[in-house]
Every structure is written in structure tokens, then in C-alpha cells.
Amino acid sequence: MFNRISIGGNPKKDANKEASKNSNFNQKNQFNSQKKGENKNTLSSLLQKRSNPEKSQDNSSGKPYKQAQNNNQSSNKNNSQKPQNNQSKQNDQNKNKKFQKHEEKQNQKNQDLTNRIEQGLVGSKFRMINEYLYTTDSKTSADHFAKNKEDFLLYHQGFQSQIVKWPEKPVDMIINELNSNQIFQNAVIADLGCGDGKIFEYFRDNNKLKSLDSSVKQGMKEVHSFDLCAHKDFIKVADSKNIPLKNSECDVVVFCLALMGTNYIEFLTEANRLLKLNGHLIISEVNSRITDMDLFIGMIECLGFKLQKKILPNTYFCFLTFKKLADNKLKLNSQILNQNKNFKTKYIAKFPKTKDQSDVLYISQSLLKPCIYKKR
């Protein structure tokens, strides 16, 4: 009727109960530990956020901490590499600038060398043409320049580079004489072997040419410029021994460093033809060309002139002014020299070895040497 009750109860049921209790207890403990861990994690995360917001931001986005740290390190590396890259770029730019400067200097040196070579060639050819003009007759030179105008231009280019070194320019002295001396007012001037035509240009630029004003004013000049070749509009081509002007048309004939050619004495007889009676012959020449000044002056006086003025402004040049006293109707032979026996006596004394004392061309050449530059 009554069930037997054991004090110990049913061992199977007790064991099951005990096991269920233990499992519940373990689950409870596990739940509590998880909760504590979560609390710890949340607390550490809060502390981490406060101490290092960048890391927490990286962790909150789902990136691991090490990866975030690596990213930070790489960004720091990039930031540290930026100034290094800038410095290397600056160094490259400096190197390029130095190279460019070096190249520019080298190019300038090369250009200077080229210019010196070209100037040397121009100077060399100028000396060749200069010697040619002094050692040939005017007709031969005229024929050459008629076919080779570039040689004439090159000669005058070289001549201009030479006169830069001179202490005083002869053409300026002549211009000053023509401009300031009262006897040359309203003069008709023939500039033979005019070169660049400086005399014409001076009076033109100062409104003292008759051709610029139809009304004749005091001090107005008429200037005719002649040379073997014309490189300016106002220059006329002519051999100085045969000028296309009428007899006795000029008041002044000028030879400024222009007694060039083995037959220069024919230029002087042509000047006598062009000049009016009492007209003036003006000569400027290199001193070193004249072997004997008195004999040179005496020879010109044999052609119908009389020396009026002799100026030696420096050791380089002389400045001679003659007046025409008579027409020269004699040919270029011994008759001209016989007009002045004093000259002939002095010449023979100076040049006793002269074989033919009647050769006027030879005598004239012995008194005025060619102006030849030293070969380099």
C-alpha cells in the first residue's frame, strides 16, 4: 500500500538532477564571465578611445589594430618621404640649371671663337685687298670691283674696323676745315676716293647742301662723291684719273687717304683739271707712306700747285692744302719735273741710283710708298 521511501532517494534521478544543476550553474557562470568580458572589453575600448582616438576609429571600422598601426606607419613614411622627394627634385633642378649655365658659357665661347675667326678672315682679306689697291693701277682695280662688288664692301668694312683705333680721323679734320674756313663757303667740292662719303653726309645732315635748298644761303656746299664702286645712292662710280665733271668746275678737290694706285700722280693732274684757278687741293695722307715730305710737296707743285698749309697733327697723318696757280697742260713725262729744277736736283741727291730720271710714274711711286699692313 505504501511506497517504500529510501532516505537516499533514487540514485538515477538524483544523479540527473545533480547533473542538470551543475550544467545550469556552469551556464550561469559562463554567461556571467561573458558578460564580465564584454564589460571589460567595453571599458578597455572606452579607455582606448580616449587615449588613442585614431586607433579606436580604425577598430570601430572593423580593421585590426596591427593593420591600422601599419597604415599609420606607412603614412608617416610617406610624409617623411615627401620632403626627401622635394629635396631630390630641388637638387635635380639645381643640377639642370648648372648644366644649362655651363652649356650657355660653352656656346658663348664657341660663338666668340667663331666671331674671332670671321673677324680674322675679314681682316686678312682686307689686308689683301688693301695691298692690291696700292700695288696696281686704278683701271685694273676699277675693273676688278666692277665684277666683284663684295670685295669693295668687305674692304670698307675692314677699313672701318681699323679707324676705330686711330687717335684722330683725317676725314673729320677735313670736314672741320671745309666747314669753318671762310674761303670754302658756297664751295663746289669733289671728294675723290670718298669711301663712305662722310663729307657729303656731314653737310647733308646739317642742311648745308645746295641740293637740299634751291635758295643759295651762306655756307651752302655742293658735294660730288666719287669712288671705284658705289655702295650708297649719292656716290658715283669713277676712276679718279677720269672724273665725269667739266674743266674748272670745282672750288675744292679732296683726297682723304685716297692716293691709292701706282698711277696716283694721274689723280693729281685730274684734280688740276677740275679745279678753278685759285681753287684748293686738300690731301690727307699717312705719314709713313711719304719717303721725303719736301720732295713729295715739290712734286705736287710741279703739277701747277703751291703749298698753302702743312699740318702734322700727330705722328700718323699729315694734312696738306695747295692752291692751283696754273693749268697743267703738260703730259706726264720729264717736262713736268723740268718745270722745277730745284726739285730735280733734290730728287737726284735723295735717290742717286735712279736709272731713268724722266720716268714720272717711277719717281712718284718712290716718294709715296704703298701702305701695306704687316702680315701676321
From TrEMBL:
Keyword list, A-Z: Methyltransferase, Nucleus, rRNA processing, S-adenosyl-L-methionine, Transferase
GO molecular function, one term: methyltransferase activity
Cellular component GO terms, alphabetical: nucleolus
Superkingdom field: Eukaryota
Compartment(s) where it occurs, according to its Swiss-Prot or TrEMBL record: Nucleus, Nucleolus
Main location: nucleus
Amino acid composition bias (Low complexity), ranges on this chain: 21-34, 66-93
GO BP: methylation; rRNA processing
SUPFAM superfamilies recorded: S-adenosyl-L-methionine-dependent methyltransferases
Residue spans of biased composition, Basic and acidic residues class: 11-20
Pfam family, one: Methyltransf_8
Polar residues bias: start-end ranges: 40-50
Enzyme class: transferase
Key word Methyltransferase present: yes
Residue span of region Disordered: 1-116
EC numbers for this chain: 2.1.1.-
Family: Belongs to the methyltransferase superfamily. RRP8 family.
Stored PANTHER family: RIBOSOMAL RNA-PROCESSING PROTEIN 8 (PTHR12787)
Function (record text): Probable methyltransferase required to silence rDNA.
Name of this chain's protein: Ribosomal RNA-processing protein 8
